[in-house]
Amino acid sequence: MSLYHYVATKNAVLDGIVDLVFAKIELPRVGRDWRAEMRRRAHSARAVLHGHPWALALLETRTSPGPATLKHHDAVLGALRGAGCH
Protein backbone atom coordinates (compact mmCIF):
# COMPACT_ATOMS: atom_id res chain seq x y z
CA MET A 1 0.00 0.00 0.00
CA SER A 2 2.90 2.39 0.54
CA LEU A 3 3.49 2.37 -3.22
CA TYR A 4 0.30 4.39 -3.67
CA HIS A 5 1.86 7.10 -1.55
CA TYR A 6 4.10 7.78 -4.60
CA VAL A 7 1.74 6.98 -7.48
CA ALA A 8 -1.97 7.55 -7.65
CA THR A 9 -3.24 4.43 -9.39
CA LYS A 10 -2.37 0.99 -10.71
CA ASN A 11 -2.42 2.46 -14.23
CA ALA A 12 0.22 4.99 -13.20
CA VAL A 13 2.39 2.12 -11.95
CA LEU A 14 1.96 0.23 -15.23
CA ASP A 15 2.68 3.38 -17.28
CA GLY A 16 5.86 3.89 -15.27
CA ILE A 17 6.98 0.30 -15.84
CA VAL A 18 6.44 0.66 -19.59
CA ASP A 19 8.43 3.89 -19.54
CA LEU A 20 11.31 2.10 -17.81
CA VAL A 21 11.31 -0.56 -20.52
CA PHE A 22 11.36 2.06 -23.29
CA ALA A 23 14.23 3.83 -21.54
CA LYS A 24 16.37 0.71 -22.00
CA ILE A 25 15.95 0.60 -25.79
CA GLU A 26 18.74 2.33 -27.70
CA LEU A 27 17.62 5.36 -29.68
CA PRO A 28 18.58 5.95 -33.30
CA ARG A 29 21.43 8.43 -33.56
CA VAL A 30 20.99 11.65 -35.53
CA GLY A 31 23.02 12.08 -38.70
CA ARG A 32 23.75 8.40 -39.19
CA ASP A 33 22.50 5.98 -41.84
CA TRP A 34 18.83 5.57 -40.99
CA ARG A 35 18.67 1.92 -42.04
CA ALA A 36 21.59 0.99 -39.83
CA GLU A 37 20.09 2.99 -36.97
CA MET A 38 16.67 1.34 -37.31
CA ARG A 39 18.38 -2.06 -37.39
CA ARG A 40 20.41 -1.19 -34.27
CA ARG A 41 17.26 0.03 -32.53
CA ALA A 42 15.37 -3.14 -33.52
CA HIS A 43 18.16 -5.35 -32.15
CA SER A 44 18.15 -3.34 -28.94
CA ALA A 45 14.36 -3.58 -28.61
CA ARG A 46 14.54 -7.33 -29.18
CA ALA A 47 17.21 -7.73 -26.50
CA VAL A 48 15.29 -5.60 -24.01
CA LEU A 49 12.03 -7.43 -24.63
CA HIS A 50 13.81 -10.78 -24.45
CA GLY A 51 14.88 -9.79 -20.96
CA HIS A 52 11.34 -8.70 -20.10
CA PRO A 53 9.04 -11.13 -21.96
CA TRP A 54 5.97 -9.92 -20.06
CA ALA A 55 6.47 -6.36 -21.33
CA LEU A 56 5.29 -6.72 -24.92
CA ALA A 57 1.65 -7.30 -24.02
CA LEU A 58 1.81 -4.47 -21.49
CA LEU A 59 3.36 -2.04 -24.01
CA GLU A 60 0.37 -2.48 -26.28
CA THR A 61 -2.18 -1.61 -23.61
CA ARG A 62 -0.86 1.74 -22.38
CA THR A 63 -2.39 5.02 -23.52
CA SER A 64 -0.47 7.51 -21.36
CA PRO A 65 3.14 7.49 -22.55
CA GLY A 66 5.84 8.71 -20.20
CA PRO A 67 8.92 10.82 -21.00
CA ALA A 68 11.13 7.90 -22.08
CA THR A 69 8.39 6.48 -24.30
CA LEU A 70 7.83 9.85 -25.97
CA LYS A 71 11.58 10.38 -26.39
CA HIS A 72 11.84 6.96 -28.03
CA HIS A 73 8.97 7.57 -30.45
CA ASP A 74 10.26 11.06 -31.25
CA ALA A 75 13.75 9.73 -32.04
CA VAL A 76 12.41 6.97 -34.30
CA LEU A 77 10.10 9.34 -36.17
CA GLY A 78 12.88 11.93 -36.40
CA ALA A 79 15.27 9.42 -37.93
CA LEU A 80 12.68 8.33 -40.47
CA ARG A 81 11.67 11.89 -41.35
CA GLY A 82 15.34 12.82 -41.68
CA ALA A 83 15.64 10.02 -44.23
CA GLY A 84 12.81 11.51 -46.28
CA CYS A 85 9.90 9.42 -45.02
CA HIS A 86 6.83 11.63 -44.62
Structure class? mainly alpha
How would the global form be characterised?
elongated
Helix-strand topology string? HHHH
Low-confidence stretches: none
Q: Mean pLDDT, rounded to whole units?
A: 93
Beta strand %:
under 5%
Helix count?
A: 4
Q: Based on DSSP secondary structure assignment, what is the total number of beta strands?
A: 0
Instruction: Specify Rg, calculated over alpha carbons.
Output: 15 Å
Q: Give the termini separation.
A: 47 Å
What percent of residues adopt helix (DSSP H or I)? 55-70%
The largest sheet, given as strand count, sense and whether it forms a barrel, is: none
Structure commentary:
The protein is mainly alpha-helical and 86 residues long. The chain has 4 helices and no strands. It has helices at residues 10-24, 34-51, 55-59, 67-82. The longest helix is centred in the middle third of the chain and has 18 residues, at 34-51. The protein is elongated. The protein starts with 9 loop residues before the first helix and ends with a helix. The mean pLDDT is 93.
Brief description of this entry?
This protein is mostly helical. It has helices at residues 10-24, 34-51, 55-59, 67-82.
